[in-house]
Amino acid sequence: MVISMLMNYNIKKCSLFLAILLLSSCSGMKTNKSSSNAITPPISNFSSSFLPIEETYQKMEVMDNAVLATLYDNYKTPVLPSKGNQKILVIPVIINGYEQNATDEVLQQLDIAFFNKNESVAYESVSSYYHQSSYGKLTLTGKVTAWFNPNVTPQELMNHASETYEDGGLYWLLDQALEWYQTQYDDLLNFDQNQDGYVDSIYLIYSAPNYYNDATLSSFYWAFTYSHLLNKERGQQAGLKAMRYSWSSFDFLYQGYGKQKIDAHTYIHETGHLLGLYDYYDTGASNVSPMGLVDMMDYDIGDHSMYSKFALGWTTPYIIDKAGSITLNSSTLTGDFLIFKTNNMNETPFDEYIMMEFITPTGLNELDYLNGYQKYFDSYPIKGFETAGIRITYINSRAVDINNQFSDNLSKMIGVKFSNTPRGNVEGFLSNEGQYYILSTMIPKDCKFGNNGLSGASFHANSSHLFIENDTFDLQHESQYRDMLPHYNNQYDKPNAGFFKYIVTIKNMNDTSCTLEFQTY
Asked: Under a CB-based contact definition with an 8 Å cutoff, are residues 492 and 499 in contact?
């Protein structure tokens, strides 16, 4: 079962692509087989020295502001900046009828889960995760406040919904929470690091359980991230206002590994949305699984993909533009990855390209990949890639301007056009009569219908779908991988971008590095 906040809480007066830009949910995919899973101690990170990259290929020269935050700024809905020292304001909220959960112990656990990792955390805190994932480029600090009591029941909160947007009363709640905060604390200005008049990010933690654990609650009581669009309409106002915010239950602390220790996976996922990242699972009803569950922005598993890190400004790719070879080190540990040059590449993450990264079960991947993450109490654990290999991904991250027209001009981009939720039914989505448009699609080894993320059934990627030593990849006429591109051949969808004309062979792979050889045809 996939819960779609996009379906339930769409913006009334906004086009579909802008709704995707602004709303992100953390529903994931619920499986129907149950078992228990004990946590085993994580294996130590590989300690071998990393190999130098051959000088045959150069890294893309990318402007510092070629990041998702720039697109949101252009649309006047700023998100939490993805580089430097940034702050999150965590405000726990009492919901009437669930006051018993608003304890000092929960406050302490939230502080640990967000900012102060210790031995009681099963995986990582929000702060420690993002410091590792960004290779030290993002440091998150912040505050967990005392419990804020707006004196509302779940229904009464809904009664505060705005007339313009189906916000469930959260715009009102955010405004009330900031007013309350300023009566209790004197440091709100510290949470506007870029001095744009908005609190950089607010995380509301409600004292009710999530609706999956309480059938009397609506699906609004889940985890999602959004923007305060009424404040966008109001423009500049006196005092700091809310803009980007997340909404999650306190009981996500006890999901996943939280049966034994504190678990921050859901809060880590939603913080990805605070930074502007999109969901990589299907938020609709078709159950396509373009990334095969294995990503922090998919099933909350492991590290962020290299596309996400590229879009957040944490690393840049090597550009393959001729025959030759290159050695990639572990992407999660070093940031190495590559993309293939097209005829009219715009030198930003917001373009169309084929990406390759060397995936290893180390670092932020280790615990989830090897033990499996049991997101729901009645589901079986989902593992990642238990052995190393090359993940190949087709990226269609082209951005649009305010008129919903594709643009290569960073100053005019206001959002990425496509998501990982197909529009229309799956058969039409996959038929030879049309084209598919997905943001991020893993191309699994030996893919065929029923064994890839576009098959219309839940697809769980595993190590057998990674490319390993002696494997080859190409998009020549007989290639089975041609169906993974929009035109079902080796042609890029972007006009005049050209064709993919490489034969890639995986060479000399070990635990820490992998050499790839490229021939042209």
From this structure: yes
pLDDT digits (tens, 9 = 90+) for 238-250: 789 999 999 999 9
HEC-encoded secondary structure of 270-285: HHHHHCCCCCCCCCCC
Give the up-direction half-sphere exposure of residue 203: CA atoms within 13 A in the CB hemisphere. 31
pLDDT of residue 480: 87
How much is the mean pLDDT over the chain?
86
C-alpha–C-alpha distance, residues 295 and 4, integer Å: 18
Q: Is 312 helix (H, G, I), strand (E, B) or coil?
A: coil
Three state DSSP letters for 141-162: EEEECCCECCCCCHHHHHCCCC
Query: Buried b vs exposed e over 331-361: b needs ≥16 C-beta within 10 Å?
Result: bbbbbbbbbbebeebbebbbbbbbbbbbbbb
What is the distance between the alpha carbons of residues 214 and 455, in angstroms, rounded to a whole number?
A: 33
Pairing of strands 352-359, 389-396: antiparallel
Residues 203, 204, 206: CA angle, nearest 5 degrees: 145
Whether the predicted pLDDT of 229 surpasses 50: yes
Task: Quote the tokens at residue 414.
Answer: 């206001």
Q: Are 434 and 427 in contact (CB under 8 A)?
A: no
pLDDT higher than threshold 50 for residue 18: no
- Cα separation of 243 and 200, whole Å? 7
Question: pLDDT per residue over 70-124, tens digit each?
Answer: 999 999 999 999 999 999 999 999 999 999 999 999 999 999 999 999 999 999 9
Is the sign of the CA dihedral 123, 127, 130, 132 positive or negative?
Answer: negative
At residue 28 the predicted structure's pLDDT band, cuts being 50, 70 and 90, is very low
Q: What is the pLDDT of residue 85?
A: 97
Distance (Å, whole) CA 204 – CA 89? 9
Tokens of 11: 């913006």
pLDDT score, position 243: 97
Query: What's the distance, CA 133 to chain centroid?
Result: 12
Burial of 12 (0-12, 13-18, 19+ CB in 10 A): exposed
Q: Which residue has the tokens 């099963």?
A: 122
pTM of the predicted model as reported, rounded to 2 decimal places: 0.90
The amino acid present at 515, given as its one-letter code, is: T
Q: Strands (DSSP E) along 172-281, which ranges? A: 202-206, 224-227, 244-249
121: which DSSP letter? B
What is the distance between the alpha carbons of residues 382 and 262, in angstroms, rounded to a whole number? 19
Are the C-beta atoms of 275 and 282 separated by less than 8 Å?
no
Q: Is 369 helix (H, G, I), strand (E, B) or coil?
A: helix
* Tens digits of residue pLDDT in 60-73: 999 999 999 999 99
pLDDT at 51 (0 to 100): 52
